[in-house]
Each structure stands twice: as C-alpha cells, then as structure tokens.
Design a protein that fits this description.
The chain contains 15 helices and 17 strands. The chain has about 425 residues and is α+β, with helices and mostly antiparallel strands. It folds into 2 domains: about 300 residues, 2-Layer Sandwich (BirA Bifunctional Protein, domain 2), CATH 3.30.930.10; about 90 residues, Rossmann fold. Helix 1 packs antiparallel against helix 5, helix 5 crosses helix 11 and helix 10 packs antiparallel against helix 11. The longest helix is centred in the N-terminal third of the chain and has 20 residues.
Length: about 425
C-alpha cells in the first residue's frame, strides 16, 4: 500500500477533482461508501475468488466478520437495494474511494487501489450504455488525454457460445478466464479436455481474436447464424457502436467480441480503456442488470471506474504544465510581530487566498535571502513582511522576485487587490 508524498498527492487530487467535476456536469452525485462491511451482507454481491482476496477481521462488538471493501460496484448495489429503492430512477451516482484486495508480492499490483467511478442505475437502454462510454471519454479529454482507445464488447455473445458448447459449469468458468486473458492455448486445452470439437470449438477459439472495427460485427453474425441468443448481444453492441460513431469518439472505438471485465456480475455490454504507453487498461466498466437484485429487486444498471494510479502514470507521460500549489504569498514577521502576521494571514485566507506563514524573521540581508528563497521554493507570487520598523500597523512591505526587486509598502486592502491582479 503506497504512501503518496505531497507533490504527487497534489497532482492526484487535481486529477480526481477534474474527474469529479466532469461527472458532476453530467448530473452524477457523489456518494461516500463505508470503508468496511459485514461479510455476510456484502458477499451476496461478490464472487468467491474475490472474497478470497479480501482483508477480513472480526467486529469486536458482535464477533461478526468484517471486510475492507474489495469492490465499489457491489457496495453501491447493496446501498441502493437497502436504502434507495424508493428513490426516483434513474440514479446517477459517482465516487472517489479505495478498494483493498490481497495480491501476492511482486504481482505488479497495489493492494490498495484508488478509484474514481460512476454508476447509472435504473435504466436499460442503448442511450444509457452509450452515455457511460461517452462520459468515460469526456473525463479523459478534460484531463488533456487524447491518445486513448475504448474497447467495446458484450459478454452475452461469448457466454452464449459457452452455454451451447456442452462445457461443464467449471469448464465454462475456466474458459471465460482464459478468453479474458486472450490465452488461446489454455482455452484450446480446456475445450480438448472436455471433448468440445468441430464448429463449436472453432467458434470459441476464434471469438477472442475478433478485434477491430465494423468487420468484427459482420464476422460475429456469421458465427451466430440465426441463433437469437447470439444475435441479440450483437444487435445491442451494433446499436451502441453506431450511436457512439456519430461522436468525436468514433476514431477511438474498437470492438472486441472476447471482451470480459473479470467480474461475474457483468451481463451485457462491457468496455475497457487503454492509453498509449501503458500495457494494461486504465479503467473500464459495463452493464450489470442483476447485481442489485442479489440484495433485493433487480434494477438494470451500468457503470465504470478509473484506476487512479494507472491513470496518473498515463498523465505523467502527457506534456503539459505541471500542477502548481498556487500559493499566493509567503508572510513573514519581523521585529517579533508573529501575532500581527497571524492576523494578516487570517484576513487574506478569508478573502480566498492561499497563504503560508514563514518561520524566518528579521531584516538583515541573510534573513531576507532565506525568506525569498522560501518564497521561490513555494512558487508564491510575493513575499509579505509584517511589522517592519517605521511601517504603520495597517501596512505591510511587499517584495516580488529577488532581493534586488523593488519593495513596496501597501495597506492590507491594497494587498488583496494586488494579489487578485
């Protein structure tokens, strides 16, 4: 679990703020879920493999087992089902939070994962699926990221092929995992072990490689024939792709009929986001029409989440102005006037300025040099000296730049105006 130091923390918070502001403009309201849940409540929405990766501990009051949240979507499903079902639908919720999952050492994955995401709950339409993907793209563009791709798929197509193959339930699960990793040798081995051959085996082995543009849909329809269980997912995917192709995302869209998100609750259109220079997805999501029903009644839903750490790594590769601290001024007291410096800082902060109180006092050249060095380190616009000899109590000395820069005496009111301009 990483420690995020001040400079990086500032950049990460800026990234999160841009994402949440974008989600807010699309009508999504922030929700803050609890850090841990009772296992016997949340496990309804979690797969056994994920439960195995949870950090668990005992509630000292009741003895019940608690777990640190391993997945936000399941948690929001629980919250909606148990407390928001009477709300007017659809619900648009967003969040920034962390999830905790055990990963072996050297697995290349943190055990505390920072996420920003959104959920659209209570509607099952082509427009809702397209909204999630368009919103994902808008978030990235607002961050200044232009070189990215969004891979679209529908889990229903490959799952329908698996269901018709004669594979056992365990074999279907292992085949899904192999297809999600694009591990065709492993998939072929599973099919061979369970005696799946002929056209069914060929279709299952071909599907994970169906990746590209509209030609993918054409080939999918050839494999589907007249089977409605195979054609219906393709129809939905075709409609969403056509709708998004009218937007500025059209050149960033790819189709992948072997797309899986790695969570069993996805049962419709799914997508992943990839950025140039990073070998794994920076986010993704999809439709989960039956997850909330595990906690109550079914509510069709879709959502997505960004992995903030991976997104941060991507943004580090993007040329642009670094995020600055925007310190407006450094205030230092001279002649033992700390109380006055505190008062000036309070007045300026009430006016919306970011102010840092310095700890170097005095008017000698050496002290002044240290003060101005501190001002430069902070990236502050100016240095303000409070309590200088011969200066009235309602005025301060302002210095911008180097020790040779011109010094001015201004009132507190004039200082506020000076900072605004």
């Amino acid at each position: 679990m990483a420690t995020i130091l001040p400079h990086t923390a500032q950049r990460v918070r800026h990234l999160e703020d841009v994402l949440l502001a974008t989600l807010g403009r699309w009508g999504y309201q922030e929700i803050i879920p609890p850090t841990f849940e009772y296992l016997d409540v949340l496990q309804t929405g979690l797969e056994p493999d994920l439960i195995e990766k949870c950090y668990k501990f005992s509630d000292r009051t009741t003895g019940r087992i608690l777990l640190l949240r391993p997945d936000v979507t399941a948690q929001i499903a629980r919250i909606v089902a148990m407390g928001m079902v009477g709300s007017q639908m659809p619900l648009r919720l967003c969040y920034r939070t962390t999830v905790f999952r055990y990963e072996p050492e050297h697995a290349g994955r943190e055990r505390e994962i920072f996420q920003v995401g959104a959920e659209l709950i209570g509607t099952d339409t082509v427009a809702a699926d397209a909204e999630m993907i368009a919103l994902t793209g808008e978030c990235l563009q607002q961050l200044g990221l232009q070189d990215f791709k969004i891979s679209l798929g529908h889990v229903g197509f490959f799952k329908a092929l698996l269901a018709k193959s004669g594979l056992s339930a365990e074999g279907q699960k292992r085949a899904e995992q192999a297809a999600a990793r694009k591990d065709l040798p492993r998939l072929e081995e599973i099919l061979h072990d369970e005696h799946v051959s002929g056209a069914q085996a060929r279709a299952l082995l071909e599907t994970p490689g169906l990746y590209g543009k509209k030609e993918v849909l054409a080939r999918g329809r050839t494999l589907a024939g007249r089977d409605p269980d195979l054609r219906n997912p393709l129809d939905r995917l075709t409609e969403v792709y056509a709708l998004l192709s009218t937007s500025d995302l059209k050149d960033r869209l790819l189709l992948d009929l072997g797309e899986f998100r790695g969570f069993e609750y996805y049962d419709g259109l799914v997508f992943e986001v990839f950025a140039k220079g990073l070998g794994y997805e920076i986010g993704g999501g999809g439709r989960y029409n039956h997850l909330i029903g595990r906690f109550g009644r079914d509510l069709p839903s879709t959502g997505f989440a960004f992995d903030v750490d991976r997104l941060f790594q991507t943004m580090e590769r993007v040329d642009g102005e670094p995020v600055r601290s925007d310190v407006h001024c450094l205030i230092c007291s001279v002649c033992d006037q700390q109380a006055r410096a505190f008062e000036v800082a309070r007045i300026l902060r009430q006016g919306g300025f970011r102010v840092v109180l310095g700890h170097v006092a005095g008017t000698r050249p050496q002290a002044l040099r240290l003060i101005l060095d501190e001002c430069a380190r902070l990236g502050a616009q100016m240095t303000v000296l409070v309590g200088r000899d011969g200066i009235p109590s309602d005025k301060v000395v302002v210095i911008a730049g180097t020790p040779n820069a011109q010094q001015r005496t201004v009132t507190i009111k004039d200082l506020s105006n000076l900072l605004r301009h």
